[in-house]
């Protein structure tokens, strides 16, 4: 049995990665995910009340629409999205990449247990270790927000995709204005960090989560950034706009 995490003191600001674009945060993001890796899956289910599975299903449908033969799941973490993609499309060759080995190890074990053949490979999303035009589809679920440079990430996605290839980014946009947005902000800022700290033992990680979402570009701005990189874009909001699926097609 996994021992319960030690109770922690309030996080120091220096332990929490910076939020937003063009930030020097790669190492602190790596440290944070390495520390929460063993509890990451449980926290996902609890904090999203299980709805994250339906978001991944919606994004997977988009990523597999053109029956790709090769697919790269960037910032795969513990591999839940890669597993969903491989389960739905066994004939697609799925590569799952992340820069935190502790997250990849968990993904690898889950794939083995489910007899799903996925190649888990270490790699930085901002410097992907693959030649140009290597994949027909590229996915990134809840990882993009953590990148130190969004434009660089998009440029790397564009580079490794084949012409006409499909990009699917699943992310949390900042909550919209209005009553639902206010309720959600309250949950995000006051409730989620407490539950996250309790289960993960890392209070900083679950302070960072809401702050990074609030600092993230809204769907229209992210769509413009994708378009400027060379993608035809479309966005679908899920569950009252809590999550968004951005679909891009690489223009040849
Ligand atoms: C919130 S988790 C998402 C994991 C998974 N995609 C999911 O849907 O559960 C974010 C992941 O992004 C990874 N990540 C963040 N920045 C990265 C980068 N520059 N290169 C590779 N992985 C990165 C982290 O290591 C972490 O595993």
TrEMBL record:
<dbReference type="GO" id="GO:0032259">
    <property type="term" value="P:methylation"/>
</dbReference>
<keyword id="KW-0474">Menaquinone biosynthesis</keyword>
<keyword id="KW-0489">Methyltransferase</keyword>
<comment type="pathway">
    <text>Quinol/quinone metabolism; menaquinone biosynthesis; menaquinol from 1,4-dihydroxy-2-naphthoate: step 2/2.</text>
</comment>
<feature type="binding site">
    <location>
        <position position="98"/>
    </location>
    <ligand>
        <name>S-adenosyl-L-methionine</name>
    </ligand>
</feature>
<feature type="binding site">
    <location>
        <begin position="124"/>
        <end position="125"/>
    </location>
    <ligand>
        <name>S-adenosyl-L-methionine</name>
    </ligand>
</feature>
<dbReference type="GO" id="GO:0009234">
    <property type="term" value="P:menaquinone biosynthetic process"/>
</dbReference>
<feature type="region of interest" description="Disordered">
    <location>
        <begin position="1"/>
        <end position="25"/>
    </location>
</feature>
<comment type="function">
    <text>Methyltransferase required for the conversion of demethylmenaquinol (DMKH2) to menaquinol (MKH2).</text>
</comment>
<dbReference type="Pfam" id="PF01209">
    <property type="entry name" value="Ubie_methyltran"/>
</dbReference>
<dbReference type="InterPro" id="IPR023576">
    <property type="entry name" value="UbiE/COQ5_MeTrFase_CS"/>
</dbReference>
<feature type="binding site">
    <location>
        <position position="78"/>
    </location>
    <ligand>
        <name>S-adenosyl-L-methionine</name>
    </ligand>
</feature>
<keyword id="KW-0949">S-adenosyl-L-methionine</keyword>
<comment type="similarity">
    <text>Belongs to the class I-like SAM-binding methyltransferase superfamily. MenG/UbiE family.</text>
</comment>
<protein>
    <recommendedName>
        <fullName>Demethylmenaquinone methyltransferase</fullName>
        <ecNumber>2.1.1.163</ecNumber>
    </recommendedName>
</protein>
<feature type="compositionally biased region" description="Basic and acidic residues">
    <location>
        <begin position="12"/>
        <end position="25"/>
    </location>
</feature>
<dbReference type="InterPro" id="IPR004033">
    <property type="entry name" value="UbiE/COQ5_MeTrFase"/>
</dbReference>
<dbReference type="GO" id="GO:0043770">
    <property type="term" value="F:demethylmenaquinone methyltransferase activity"/>
</dbReference>
<dbReference type="InterPro" id="IPR029063">
    <property type="entry name" value="SAM-dependent_MTases_sf"/>
</dbReference>
<keyword id="KW-0808">Transferase</keyword>
